[in-house]
Amino acid sequence: MFQFDDYQHILFERRDPNILWCTLNRPEVLNAADRRLHTEFVHLWQTIDSDPTIHAAVIT
Fold first, then answer.
1. Taking the domain 10-59, which CATH number applies?
2. What are the pLDDT digits (tens) for 4-57?
3. Which of 46, 43, 49 has the alpha carbon at shortest distance from 5?
4. In the chain, where are the structural domains located?
5. Which residues are CB-neighbours of 30 under 8 A, at least 6 positions away?
6. Is the separation of the CB atoms in 44 and 34 below 8 Å?
7. Residue 1 confidence class, pLDDT cut points 50, 70, 90
8. CB atoms inside a 10 Å sphere around CB 20
């Protein structure tokens, strides 16, 4: 199952059991990507790939 605890710059919501909504949360820098955000995205893609309950992800 998906773990939300490791993320500082991405917020998550399940509006549907199989769709994960991912919202960038760095308003102080207009959601600019830094090393931490890149690392979180790498981990996010790996987690989505290994979670059979996630059929789609929406990035906002």
1. 3.30.300.220
2. 778 999 999 998 999 999 999 999 999 999 999 999 999 999 989 999 999 999
3. 43
4. 10-59
5. none
6. no
7. low
8. 22
